[in-house]
Request: fold
Amino acid sequence: MKSSVAHRTDFPLTAADRCDRCSARAMVVTVMRNGGTLLWCAHHYALNETALRAGEAVVVRDERASR
Reply:
């Protein structure tokens, strides 16, 4: 979890940003209800999207469509 970016409003993702679940390039940034930030690849975000929404995570950056 990368809590240092939790308070940012601009989340420009670069090729250096990696999914917190695997080593793939991050495509989605979510901020959890408790304030923690998670970076997701498209695959892992899709697998966890329902649970993230149930946990009230907020998507602050989604670059899946821009690929």
